[in-house]
Amino acid sequence: MRTGGRRILAAALAAVTFLMLFAAPAEAAERYCFQRKSIKILKDITGLLKKENLKETRSRQKKIAADLEKIRKVSETDYAIAEAIMDCWENVMVNEDYPFIIYGGGEYAPELEDSGIAECGKHAFIVMGYALSRGRMQPELKGRCDAAAAAARSWPDSIVICTGGATGGSNPESHTEAGEMKEYLTGECGIDAERIFTDTEAKITVDNVINALAIMKEQDVHACTVVTSHYHQRWSQMLIRAMAAISREEGYPVEIIANYNYKGSESVRLETGRGMALNQLDMLISRFGAAD
């Protein structure tokens, strides 16, 4: 090889090495961290919501507004997340007319036709897990999977994310909710295995949303619909919208398009669901704190 050719090749190799060493890390998003003061104030707000009854009072509204302003003074990004959380509280958790989209029991999901999925680009159905019994799915989880399968058939370009770890008693082989869900969706429902992604670690809803959004990032998907039971949807929305607000500040925007619900025999009182949502919201906030 001529000297000039060697120099060109060496220069090209050096350029590639430089890009591998420096360009790739620069593109990686940093994990978001709340400021310590913001965490304390946010937990003051959730504590207030837990203690007071749901009847809106001027004193509570004023206190929350004042606390939000305190967060704004600490960090504009923390404030943006806190504001998104409070918006979801008012529009989902407190709103008794929150519009549930209920699975009708068919092979397809016509109930989702006007949901906005068709216009949102790359999209995921996130299917929330439910505790196993002796390592196997209970009827509630099968119902959620039936709803997810109908949605997946109606929207064949969407991926499906099953989330749920090894749960339930008498499960010596550590079967996971996500693993059982994928087996059911492929074997019983005929959904292509290549469309299904699993999170086999989550044990509670806050884990579900954190891990599901991580899979969305890996697959470069920016929009999702949460599939779960109707009684579980509100606090799932609360947590996934909070996580989406955090993800936005990390540089990865996520849009929650719709909800889709299996309505079985299980139920939870609305007040109980609100309490569970707030407890797990505290966990979520703690997991993303704190910046020094």
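Above is the first protein from milestone M3; the second protein from the same milestone is given next.
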Amino acid sequence: MAFTAGICQRRSHFFFFLLLHQRLLTFSMSVANAGLAAAATSAEAEEAKQVPPTVDAYDALDEDRPIAPDQFDPKFETTKWEIWAYYSYYVGNNGLTLFNFAPTSFQDLLYEAAGDSEILHFLGRDRTINSIVLLANGISFAIQVVLFLILGSFADYGTWRPYILVFWSIVAFGLGFGWLGVHTEDKWPVATGLYMVGLIAYQMCITFWTAAFPGLARNTAEMRHQAEAYEQGEISREEYDFADMMQRNRISNVAFIMQSAGEIIILAILVGILFALDVNASAANNLWGLSVLIAYATGVWIVLSIPWFVLEKRRPGQRLPPGLNIVSVGFWQLYRAILQIWELKQSLLYLIGQLAFLPPSL
């Protein structure tokens, strides 16, 4: 089977729903940061009125304040090298490992193991390859839903976010190198496990990495000056929010540009590896080539992630709302996201548009 054919294997529509789910979770995280990025809505004001009288005034209004305490602590000021380290991690976590080549290798192994019948015994009965892929996707997706509901709030609250990112990155690194031992058709059950856990690890890594950029943005020298100006009444809330939005957009967009440019270099080297392994010579070479590519991209990810692990400043997260704990606040975030997305019609149309304009092939 030619390598190019392997890359073009038909993917399940699961990947779209996985992306949609991640976008909704990311939005729910951003809602909790509404006091940092957008003016308080009337709904939020109503919530503030309902805060129990036992909570002091600062806690009651904390949700409406656009200034985070860490903005006034010099030790948390964002440095140039920290921002570049943030970009570097994204270049490494480009999806080539567990989100691109791993699914391709997984499906190739299924086809090689099943032969012309395209039937394999999985979870107690004979199933088609498409059925196995869909079940694997569904199981992985269900686990992700549970993990994000329980751990998603750690991205915004407390100080555990950096450590969760390091943990899942290490898991992803191990999975990436694990594919070196899974390149023959008899290993397809192992490949199924690597595939499912790999999807989970990739989504956890990209989500907890993404959650760091609001803190980076608000602690830049520019935003610290804006925060001081707002506290002194020199600028309005709207002006502060606009500056915050632009700073976040700048970091997010530059990260995407750097990731795209870096991936071109990674792919150029990858092509050389393909020729060296002669992946078009046989199905065995093709499968071995995919395993090597996953390991190669994993090695690049490790090298490019180290600067971020070292240089990131462990900034404190938000304080938990009264009456909520680190687990229950995740459900509260999701609830608020569902309610408030109706006020952000452009975001809602974007999500609907992704669903409505799916290519028929998916």
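Note on the second protein: Residues 1-63 have pLDDT under 50 and may be disordered.
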